[in-house]
Amino acid sequence: MERGSRGKNLSSERFAPWSPKATHSTPSRLACLPELVQTSLMDYQGRIIRPPSEAESILLQVTTGCSHGKCTFCGAYQGKRFSIKPEDVVTKDIGYAARHFPDQRRLFLCDGDALIMPQARLVGLLDEIRSALPRLTRIGSYANAKAVARKTDAELRELRRHGLGMLYMGLESGHDPTLRRVKKYGDAAFLVQQGQRLRDAGFRLNVTVLLGLGGPDQSLEHARATGAALSAMDPDQAAALTLMLIPGTPLHAEAQSGHFRELTAHEALVELRELLAHTHLTRGLFLSDHASNRLPLQVRLPKGREKALARIDAALAGGVRLKPEALRRL
Fold it and tell me: Single GO molecular-function term (predicted)?
């Protein structure tokens, strides 16, 4: 998730659809593209999810679902079996994009696991994209740590040379007991290592974490360990979202049965403060401006830390208006 523009606000990750007829619209809706619209444009299977900073990007679906698919909190790809889409389908979509959107500057590879593709095919895909859409200045993708680990350092550098530049990685937590409980792939050391490898390969890195994932009993431990993990990864941007339980997920079922509880607004602010206090980035941007959060922050670290902590303290004291619960969303 190029070091050249650390100062640019990449925004935080959220669910949002894309329509090539409305690439300049505000990316705040959760609904997916209507099936008939999808069919008439490009081959989109199921709900398409992208980071908000990819609002003006061509969305090219090259895989469906997630190769791990076991995280108990995640409902992003419910009902989708993981697969790599046929080459002819992807090539047809690239051709459509080249004919209809030749001036687009950004392209995003969907779904959640493009890097799991065999190296030769992924390199060929990047070359095909750049040949068909020569005006592109950025190609982005989610970076599943499982997929990253399957690439050698040389392969990662090769992908960077062939045009892949922006990667979005979900750390979620740096607290190993929390990671195990929610069935995230890998422990904190593993996730940090994969993030560091991406940075070393020259990628621009955006890392997301989840406030409240440890529940109230592990809140401070989750926050401190996550801050330490973010500090070790040192991404261009760290984005904190607040956990919102999604019906149909195992974690939602845990909550329904009384075995898990979401944080209250006050508890979430305390956790946000602890997370920020323990996050030390070289020149990165720390955000809590996602729609799931109650207190939006955009903090340039390290210089903006104290001002942001003071704002959180003011919110804890009741001096800052929080987002109403009815307006929080994924």
Answer: metal ion binding
